[in-house]
Structures are given as structure tokens and as C-alpha cells.
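Task: sequence design from structure.
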């Protein structure tokens, strides 16, 4: 091999070796791996199965399929909740229970919101100290049938004027104001064209004991009692005047109240 070729080959080998050396030194070393200590792991949250509303349940309706078990943090479970651990059969047993107040999806079920076993619905929703009194109504004495439970009404008494005193026509008076309606007993009737309509027959009102006495006397005196529906903005009024003279009179003891021809009088009053 000629000397010139040998020299050229040697130079090429040396150049290749030098290029490889340079390339090796130019490779960037990978950054060191950083290990982050996340600290101690959070402890697992203890859970319990709690009976929860899966849908809205209006007052007076059965729970039905609107309840189910749901996992709930144990720290948030109180004695009023119904748990699977304490009552494993509660889901099936309570499906037929009736709501004494409106309940909403997502809230834990409480027995205090259900009609108790052996209780009637009406007595369970009646506040302490109040009385439920029924009065007959019709479409023309109940705002055309638009009065519904939990609406507030005024009770208007209409009676004929005393003809013996030269009076004529009718006298009207609002005897009770801002009274809550508890229930409306409705029946279905057919009109002359055969159309079926829902007509109220009886309205049950929430009254104090004295108001119950007033409406009882008024039912005997009146030719008609009418329920006037109040605006929802007027239901906050309190201490409204009422016809307490129907039961109180002059406030004297030992008297007997006599109702005759629509007039109230007292007999046997002490002097």
C-alpha cells in the first residue's frame, strides 16, 4: 500500500475518533431525579350507610321509592339519622310511611318528619295548642275552588238583617282573618254538559281554641260562611281583630249565650 494512502487512512481514523470523543462529551447528562415527600397519607374517612331521600316528597305523601341507603361520613351522623347498622330493615319498613312535612332530595330521613304509627295525618301536622275545625263550603263560597291546603283565608259571615227592627237585606262581617287552611275535602261532580269538575265540600281550618268557638257559633247564626283567599304577601299579619264578641260577650261569668233568629244575647248574667 502506498505510503500516502496509509497516511490518509491514519488521519481519517484519528479524525473519526476525535469526533466521537467530542460528541460523547457534548451529550447532556439527565437531571437528577427529585423525590418529593408527600408526607403521611390522610387517614381513610369512616362511612356509614344512612337512609336518605332520593326524591322530593310533598307533605301527606308516602315515601315509596323516594328513599335509599347512601354512604355518609360517620362524624356527620347524629342520633336522629336512620342507619343500616342500627336498622337494617328500615328501607322496606318505611316505604309506606307518610311525610308530615315536605321533604327534599338529598336530606337524611328523620322519624320526626314522619306521621307516627297509630297517628292520623291531621293530628300529626296540627301545631301544639291549635285546633282543626271543619266548615262546609262550595265553589261560590271558596274563591271558586281555588283555595288549597296551606293557603290563608278570611272567614266572612253573612246573615239576614232583623226584619222586626225595620231592617232589610243582609249583614256581612269578617269574623276571622288570616286563617290557615289545613285540608280541602273535594268530590268530583258533573255539570250540565257532562264535564267533570272537582268541587270542595268541606274546608278544615287551623284555629286557636277561641277561634274554634267563634266559628262554631257563626255556623249556627249565619246564612252563609264564605272563605276569602288572601294574597301570599298578606299572610304575615299577626294579631288581627276577630269577632270575639260571639263568645266573650261582656266578659262576665255565669252567663248563658242564647242564639235566636241570628241574634246573640246573654241570660243569667251576674250583676
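Answer:
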Amino acid at each position: 500500500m502506498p505510503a500516502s494512502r496509509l497516511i490518509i487512512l491514519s488521519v481519517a481514523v484519528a479524525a473519526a475518533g476525535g469526533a466521537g470523543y467530542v460528541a460523547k462529551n457534548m451529550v447532556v447528562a439527565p437531571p437528577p431525579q427529585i423525590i418529593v415527600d408527600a408526607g403521611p397519607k390522610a387517614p381513610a374517612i369512616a362511612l356509614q350507610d344512612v337512609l336518605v331521600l332520593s326524591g322530593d316528597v310533598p307533605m301527606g305523601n308516602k315515601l315509596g321509592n323516594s328513599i335509599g341507603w347512601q354512604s355518609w361520613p360517620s362524624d356527620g351522623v347524629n342520633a336522629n339519622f336512620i342507619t343500616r347498622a342500627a336498622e337494617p330493615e328500615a328501607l322496606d319498613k318505611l316505604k309506606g310511611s307518610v311525610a308530615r312535612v315536605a321533604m327534599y332530595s338529598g336530606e337524611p330521613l328523620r322519624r320526626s318528619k314522619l306521621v307516627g304509627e297509630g297517628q292520623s295525618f291531621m293530628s300529626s301536622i296540627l301545631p301544639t295548642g291549635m285546633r282543626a275545625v271543619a266548615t262546609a263550603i262550595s265553589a261560590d263560597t271558596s274563591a271558586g275552588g281555588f283555595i288549597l291546603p296551606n293557603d290563608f283565608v278570611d272567614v266572612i259571615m253573612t246573615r239576614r238583617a232583623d226584619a222586626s227592627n225595620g231592617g232589610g237585606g243582609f249583614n256581612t262581617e269578617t269574623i276571622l282573618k288570616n286563617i290557615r287552611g289545613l285540608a280541602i275535602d273535594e268530590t268530583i261532580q258533573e255539570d250540565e254538559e257532562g264535564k267533570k269538575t272537582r268541587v270542595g265540600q268541606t274546608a278544615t281550618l287551623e284555629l286557636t281554641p277561641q277561634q274554634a268557638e267563634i266559628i262554631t257559633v257563626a255556623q249556627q247564626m249565619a246564612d252563609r260562611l264564605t272563605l276569602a283567599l288572601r294574597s301570599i304577601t298578606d299572610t304575615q299579619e299577626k294579631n288581627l281583630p276577630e269577632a270575639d264578641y260571639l263568645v266573650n260577650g261582656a266578659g262576665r261569668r255565669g252567663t248563658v249565650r242564647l242564639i235566636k233568629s241570628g241574634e246573640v244575647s246573654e241570660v243569667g248574667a251576674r250583676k
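Residues 250-255 have pLDDT under 50 and may be disordered.
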